[in-house]
Design brief:
The longest helix is centred in the first third of the chain and has 52 residues. The chain is built from nine helices and five strands. Helix 2 runs antiparallel to helix 3, helix 5 packs antiparallel against helix 7 and helix 7 runs antiparallel to helix 8. It is mostly helical. Strand 2 and strand 3 form a beta hairpin. The radius of gyration is 29 Å and the shape is extended. The two termini are 38 Å apart.
Length: 380
Amino acid sequence: MMGNNADTGQYGVSFSMPFPINVDNLFDFEARCGEVAGILKRADGDAVRALSIVTQQEALLVEECRNDLHTMSNVCEDLSSDLLTLKNAVSELAWSMRSVRSEYLGIAQTAQDCRLLVEGDTVILFDEDVEDCAHSFEELKAQAQVQRLNYERAEYVFSLALESLKVDAYEQWIEPVFNAFKDQFVPNEKHLLANGVACGVGVVDTIGQSTSALTMQHFDGLYKAPEGFLDKGDLSMWTFEPIGKHGLEPVGTRRIAPALGKVGKVAGVAGAVVDGGITAYDTYQTDTEQHPEWSEGHKVTRAGVKGVTTGGTTFVMGIAGAKLGAAVGAVCSGPFAPVGAVVGGLIGGVVGGLAGHYGGEYLGDVINEQGTDRIAEAIG
């Protein structure tokens, strides 16, 4: 980060312009990605042609050979696609960093022309220079701050592009579900405040559901499940039917769970709103970096559309997944139905919300490409 060793109004101040990236290596890596992607694409074509030839043969190992060639074709195609995505992302990063580097070099040269001391990536204003160069120092410092923001934004957009790469089964299926579980209980450092609220509400909801389940499990036989399939997963639909001395409903389901449930009712809404807001923010940042020629209204509209579609589908699919998962968990858990309902609802909600998130992003992209972008182009 750019820093000062004292306040700018005092003597002996400085600012730095760290630039640890080798831009030339980025451009070289971009070229290598393109070359390897081309090789893999041709290998995919060769595998497809070989597959068509083998399919027409008759022998004991034809089926195994056909499956292997089909697998090879898919792997080559997927890797080629990922490398092209990586190539485009590296290209965006390289050009952005090249611009920042040029600006930094220009700032350093201007500083020397103004008789400021430049040592490596640091510009220094000494006591004897204050009267003549203090104004230039402040202007150059402000320019360096702008470039530092450009540097960080380019890194952030590049990280978003890397996150979109799905190179194996773990990253494609298991990791997103794991991260979704983690995000439900651990606030994301990038959006700590927004995620903190949703996580807090989610934790309260889970505690309330767990309290009901454990109470029902402990007082086994005193709670009756409802008749409907989906209703079995909703613990609030279970009825307390006392026998003998158990005339008063246990405090877990009588007071604690209903109190926490009032907060838990907004858990799905809070999570969807946060998910949509973060998606909108990421969309705006990406568009700002990749399309500086777009107007502010165009970028804000695209971000709003994608945020709304993502948040809406996340909410709907999350609720649906939670209800279905809770019902399946209750039905399949036998005597542990209350606990199974909580576990099943948690898993179903996370998986459903994850599916809704990706579906909403896709829907938002379609609406933006077919509607928002075309309207913006027509307006000019």
